[in-house]
Amino acid sequence: LKARSKLMMISEHGDERGYLTVIEGNKTIPFEIKRVFYIYGTKEGIRRGFHAHYKTKQALIALSGSCTIHLDNLERKDEIKLDCPTKILILEPNDWHEMYDFSVDCVLLVLASHLYDAEDYIRDYELFKSLHT
Ligand code: T46
Question: What is this structure's pTM?
Answer without folding.
Answer: 0.97
